[in-house]
Write a structure and sequence with these properties.
It is built from twelve helices and 15 strands. By secondary structure, the protein is of the alpha/beta class. The protein has two domains: 19-48 and 298-392, Aspartate Aminotransferase, domain 1 (Alpha-Beta Complex), CATH 3.90.1150.10; 63-296, Aspartate Aminotransferase, domain 2 (3-Layer(aba) Sandwich), CATH 3.40.640.10. The protein has a seven-stranded mixed β-sheet, with helices on both faces. Strands 1-2-3-13 form a four-stranded mixed β-sheet. Helix 2 runs antiparallel to helix 9 (281-296), helix 3 (73-86) packs parallel to helix 9 (281-296) and helix 10 packs parallel to helix 12. The protein is globular, with a radius of gyration of 21 Å. The chain binds pyridoxal-5'-phosphate. Residues 96-98, 101, 129-131, 183, 187-188, 218, 220-221, 246 line the site of pyridoxal-5'-phosphate (PLP). The site of pyridoxal-5'-phosphate has 14 residues, from helix 4.
């Protein structure tokens, strides 16, 4: 494969797919690959879901773009469907996760500005990933991703994920904190969950309320049914002031969203933020179709049942080895011994087992299958992965 004209920002695998359907990707010669990655948690409804394809086709033939200078009926409808599911008051549509997070982080600064702060700080977590724009990159932990970009380090305080004592200490040490920004499960950082699970979010919200900070949750990866609820925070009693999402929101169509509630509602006014493309008729109709499927298909229940089945079956099959699992719904981390060399796993899974996976945090196999996977396909993921791992353990 020649990529002469493309900047080498990715180490691409030596394969490309020409078409996809449901849980399967196909090469030009029709070889099927079972997709347990879905474009990194994007195609939650499976590849080319008929309802989404129909929405794209019909809207592409009707009206693609007018700009936010005009009313956009599909944006209103998508906003209502999304905010109702997310239990939020209003939404700003962007085009990616990083852009949605950029909006959230800018909003935190506006919130601080209204209270007369000079240089506000946001608390973020170790191992976090929030995107590649300068502000979202500054919130991101990964030093390799940040290297050389003069990130805005003074504007963030980084604490260990899951550590409430560190948040309390930060509140004592700094007088200029305006928000906490957190992923419910750290996707890129190793499928990390807090020791007390989603109750961690409740503790974070309590700290935000006690200190008058905004509570902001990044559900770019965990949102849109991925963990078996519309949004992962809904596994807890926590309620964010600001909630971002992208990835599964468009099932492959690029779209992001920053939602607000309560005291964060109204921070952005006319002219304070914008996007030429955000919420086009086409993108919005896609979002509406995704939420129509999520609401009416039993797909999130399936994500919970099949996710649990995949996790349990793999750990049962490999119980004599040092293998455990973590995650929720269709966000599954299979944790391998940290002494194991996992550098060849992705290639071996693809070439020898026709299974598409990802490895994160050096020794965690990350499985992000479609939410509507069949039991037979779940069994295939289990069988292929166990056959890959067993000889290597
Ligand atoms: C939690 C989280 N936030 C933000 C992003 C960035 O999203 P995007 O690549 O759409 O800009 C990602 C991408 O992996 C993510 O997982």
């Amino acid at each position: 494969m020649s990529a002469t004209y493309l900047m080498p920002t990715y180490n691409r695998q030596p394969i490309s797919f020409t078409h996809g359907s449901g849980s399967w990707l196909y090469t030009k010669d029709e070889t099927p690959y079972l997709d347990a990655l879905t474009g990194i948690a994007v195609c939650g409804l499976g590849h080319c879901h008929p309802k989404v394809t129909e929405a794209i086709q019909q809207q592409a033939a009707t009206l693609v773009h007018t700009s936010n200078l005009f009313g956009i009926d599909w944006q209103e409808r998508a906003g209502e469907a999304l905010c109702t599911a997310a239990q939020m008051d209003s939404v700003f549509f962007a085009n990616s996760g990083a852009e949605a997070n950029e909006a959230a982080l800018k909003m935190a600064r506006l919130y601080a500005h209204q209270q007369g702060f000079k240089r506000p700080k946001v608390i973020v977590m170790e191992q976090s990933f929030h995107g590649r724009t300068l502000l979202s990159l500054s919130a991101t932990a990964n030093p390799k991703a940040r290297e050389g970009f003069y990130t805005l380090d003074d504007d963030f305080i980084r604490v260990p994920f899951g550590d409430i004592a560190a948040i309390k200490q930060a509140a004592k040490d700094y007088g200029d904190i305006c928000a906490i920004f957190v992923e419910p499960i750290q996707g890129e950082g190793g499928l990390n969950t807090a020791a007390n699970g989603f109750s961690y979010l409740e503790e974070l919200q309590a700290q935000c309320e006690a200190n008058n900070w905004l509570f902001m949750i990044d559900e770019v990866q965990t949102g849109n049914g991925r963990t078996g609820k519309y949004f992962a925070y809904q596994h807890s009693n926590a309620r964010p002031d600001v909630l971002t999402t992208a990835k599964g929101l468009g099932n492959g169509f690029p779209v992001g969203a920053c939602m607000v509630r309560g005291r964060a509602n109204g921070l952005f006014g006319a002219g304070s933020h914008g996007s030429t493309y955000g919420g086009t008729p086409l993108a919005s109709r896609v979002v509406h179709s995704v939420y129509d499927v999520l609401a009416n298909s039993g797909i999130m229940e399936n994500a919970l049942t099949e996710g649990q089945f995949i996790r349990k079956s793999i750990t049962d099959e490999l119980q004599q080895y040092d293998v455990s699992s973590r995650g929720a719904g269709m966000m599954i981390g299979i944790v391998l011994p940290n002494t194991m060399d996992c550098s060849q796993l992705v290639d071996l899974a693809r070439d020898e087992h026709k299974l598409i996976i990802n490895v994160t945090g050096s020794h965690v196999v990350r499985l992000l299958p479609p939410l509507n996977i069949s039991r037979h396909e779940s069994q295939q993921i289990i069988e292929r992965l166990v056959n890959l791992l067993r000889p290597l353990l």
